[in-house]
Structure formats: structure tokens, C-alpha cells
Amino acid sequence: MTGTALLALVAAGSALGAHLLTRARWTWRTPRTAIALWQALGLAWGLASIGTLLGFGVAPYDDGVVAGIGRSLRDPRPLSPIHLAALAAGLTLALMLLGVLMIAIAGVVRARRRHRALLALVAHGDPEVPGTLVVDHPVAAAYCVPGVRSQVVVSAGTLELLGPYELAAVLAHERAHARERHDLVLLPFTSLRRMLPQSRTVARTLDAVELLIEMAADDRARRHRPAKELATALLRFASAGSAPSPVGTLGIIGADETNPILVRVRRLLTPDPLPRRVRGAMLAGATLVATLPLILYALPA
């Protein structure tokens, strides 16, 4: 079987894996590992899809993807119009994926710049929550603005809603978002959503990754604060109807059909992590999935 055929199988397998992973619940037991697996599947799908098109385009050279592309640049005469079209489609897909990602990054940067400018006008410090900006708004809200100098923001409604220990747990959750740069994890998935807005699988993928990111931040916060404090704070946010986080930020998400607060509360109070050896095997598998397309690119025909 040629490298091109194997790349096609990897692309199809990655899409199928993503579809199955959107329905999986074991991922909640190990959110960080599951996020790594999601990233590996996304990378493998993109590289394998591009490689399949490029590989078919240079198939007449019978020399693999990388070597075939090199030969096509030197002497394209053996390529028929169909093979040239496949080669062009592969390059176009690569440029589209990269371009959509760049557009998403630029949009997030602009949104954060605008929001930081707005915070400079309306937010202020508070000695009760050092290192945190407070916005005088009655609706409960808490979020972080990621970046080189990340900022955690809470509303006056949050300060009234939560007790001091619950507030400390929420701040630990938001700082976990900033410390682990969860915004960078989300960018490829939000850009793919922009590219394929009608795809239900992509929409479910983004929802699944967003929930896993919240769970990962919950776990990080639980290292510093008792789980009960954050669980109680989440329930208070849910009952109060918290405000949505601004574009380009990460925050406490509300309780609706797509954001199951009760699931997060349950796993906080009754944690059931996967054994370390299982997590290690999953990380090894994710690494293999992510690197396999690159190996197939170099595989001779």
C-alpha cells in the first residue's frame, strides 16, 4: 500500500476518531490527556488530507510525496491535468487552513486589544481581590483576558454573589486558564469552525474541547483550593445566570444544554481520574497519531 493510500486512511481515521470522541465521556476523567488527543487528531487530519491530495498529484513519479513534489518543481511534464489539479487542491487546502488560522489569530488579537482598552476605562483594582480587575456591573461574571500579561476580571455582581473562599476558587480557575494558555489550545478549533461553519462534527468538537478546557482549569484550581469551594461557586453562577464571556476571553461558563455545569460539579466532588499508566499510553498514542502523517510524507512509493 502506498504512502498516499495510507495518508487517506489516516485522514479518514482522524475524522472518525473525532466523531467518536465527541460522544466519549471517559475524556472527562483525564481532560488534559484528552485535549492532547484532540490536538493530535486535528493535526493528523489536516496533514493527512493535504498529503493525500499532494500524493495523488505526484503519483506518476512513483517516488513518494516529498520527493515527488521536488521532482514536480523540476519537471512537471509527466503530470496530467488531473494530477496537476490534485496538486493544486492540496496546496490550496494547506493555504486555506493556514490562512483561516491566521485570520482567527488576528481577530482574537484585535478583540483583546479593544477589550483591554475598554477595561482601562471602566475597570479598577480592589484591595479585597489583589491582582484582579473589577468591573462595576451587577451581573455575575468572571473571566481572564489571556496574553503575555494576562488579566483576570470579575464583576461587582460576582463579589456580591460569592463568599471569600468561593471567590478564591474562581480566581484560581481563571488563573489556570491564563497559566496554561488555553486560548492557544482553542484557536485551531475555532478557526476550523470558521472554515466549516455548517459542519456538525466541527461544532461538537469545539463544544467538547471547550468543556475539557474548563475541566482542566477546574483540576488546576483544585490543587490550590478545596473542590467544594469551586463546585459551590459554579452552582451559584448557574443559579444567578452569569454573563457570557467577551470575545477572546476565557471564563466561567453558564448552565445550559451545551455547558453542563452539573457535570463539572459532579466530577469536582467525586473525582475519578484514569490510572497514570493509561494516561501515559494515551499520550504516546496521541504523539504517534500526530507524527504519522509526517512519516508517510517521507515514505517512498
From TrEMBL:
Tagged with keyword Cell membrane: no
Top-rank taxon: Bacteria
Cofactor: Zn(2+)
Pfam family, one: Peptidase_M48
Domain Peptidase M48: 113-195
Regions that span the bilayer: 82-109, 281-299
Family: Belongs to the peptidase M48 family.
Protein name: Integral membrane protein
Native organism: Actinoallomurus iriomotensis
